[in-house]
Amino acid sequence: MKANILDFIDFKKVDTLLEGFNKSTGFVTAILDLQGKVLSKSGWRQICTEFHRVNPETSKNCTVSDTVLAGETAEGESYHFYQCLNGLVDVAVPVVIDGKHIANLFSGQLFFEEPDRLFFKKQAEAYGFDEEKYLEALDKVPVVSKERVKTVMAFLLNMTRLISETTFQRLEQQELKEAVLKSEERFKTFMEETPVYAYIKDGSLNPVFSNKKVLELSQSAQMGRTADSAKTLFDPEIAEYLEDADQKIVSGHSNRIELEYKVKIGGRDKWFNEIKFPLKLTDGTKGVGGLAFDISERKGAEEELLKSVSLLRVAGRIARFGGWSVNLTGGKVIWSEEVAAIHDLPSGFSPSLTEGIDFYAPEWKDKIASVFSACAQDGTPYDEEMQIITALGRRLWVRTIGEAVRDETGAIIQVRGAFQDITERKKNEEERERLIASERAARSEANKAKEQVTQILERISDGFGSLDREWRYTFVNEKLAQTVGRRREDLIGCHIWTEFPDAVGTQVHQAYLRAMADQVPIDLEHYYPPFERWFQHRFYPSPDGLTVFSRDITERKQGEEELKKHRDRLEELVKERTAELETKIKEIDRMNKIFVGRELRMIELKERIKALEAGNPATAIDGPSAGDRDRKLE
Hints:
- The strands form four sheets. This protein has a five-stranded antiparallel β-sheet with strand order 2-1-5-4-3, with helices on both faces.
- It is 51% helix and 24% strand.
- It is an alpha+beta fold and 634 residues long.
- It has 22 helices and 20 strands.
- 18% of the residues are buried.
- The chain starts with a helix and ends with a helix.
């Protein structure tokens, strides 16, 4: 908004004013927006243009001074004196247009007293300025009394007000122009797009304007021409009827004529409600304006309403629903046919008020009398369900509704309402309550059974969990939660593969998928590296999901592994002992052979000695036979 307002300031004229002000007073001026952007300036000091606003650091000081310090105008101040962060004195005058502060008019770049040269020498050194040139520029900055500056600021304040008022006038003119254009455009759009048929005719009843809806009625609309007259659109009788009304408007006999008629267009009947009125045309002559409303739907609705009334009577008879009224001034009671039928009475029966109340069951008479009285006296409506006893002695549940009818003075003159037999509904409600009670009992039993199952699942030594078809946990017992190192409440409702992404793609993941897809139970033992544990999983699928029993079999697996190691070690020992025995047996065989050979030799020598002693030298020379040696050896 502020940027738009700035666009309405005539900166060419402002620049001329500020230049003239600078030349006549020697005071520098500038207009800056609230972000510190220079919009106009005149006669700025050399120390500012060649030093302070050129160096990046001192330029930042200028920006802060132009925006933050300049905006610290105290309440009630017309302008604000302040020392800029680079050491000079400036004055800021807020530029306010249409109540919005959009910019500041600055003057200054001066001193109220002789400047501290040491301060500016240090500033030259700090920011790398050429000290000599910087101090020369400093000497050109005027020292002006505060009183003189105030005098000058009074003039600048008036100049600022002039700028604000001029800009506000331009802004108002622009806004007014835009408002007029928008208004004309809206009117044109309204007249063209309105669903109403709108037209204007001159004093000779020639068309001056016809909107789209009128053109659509004419065959010539396709060629972009307006209809010549009503004769172009309607049959002669209707056309004459409409043009006669136009003549009455033009002649001044009537100021407003409202018509309702039916015509046939495109083979279909259409109903119109048309209003004709006099108009003063742009050339000052009198014409006729017209607005026609297509009321075909309303007419159709009226016909449907008549049908609906008939259907309502049928519906009331089927739904056992009727109406009644009591005229309080005469006490006359009127029952509809269905209300009479509900009471097992003939159509047209009209009881007295007391007789009507007497049909209510004894326990409901006081209630109906009370609510009817409150409605008749205070206008309090009622909607109650009670029981009546019909003329044939049948006890029925009914819904009775009553409301007050007031005259133009606000006095209650009648009570009327509706009456419906709701006996079947009440029976259904009783049956419904019985079924609800039965359902609650069944649900209670189911909850007890569920609690028992839950307790059993909590007591079993295996981990147990169930998943739905979307792979989200629906139940987790404490054992399973402990096994996976999670809290059970942190798993319920969570996606298993999101919670355990490391398992995706593993053997157990494939088993889960297969059990769910093929609806087959699976028994799997596997090692899960993230937990460094062995698990046995039993998967039991169902159409609703999957239940899993999980057991940590790490100790069993470690035992089996240890047993295997012992068995393998035993087999190694057996092999070692067998090899040792085989070696020893071979050594024994070898030793036996040596020992047996030695024994046979001794036997042979003994036999020869015996042969020689016996005087049998041949035997002693040949030795005993092999058979004899074997027998001797045995």
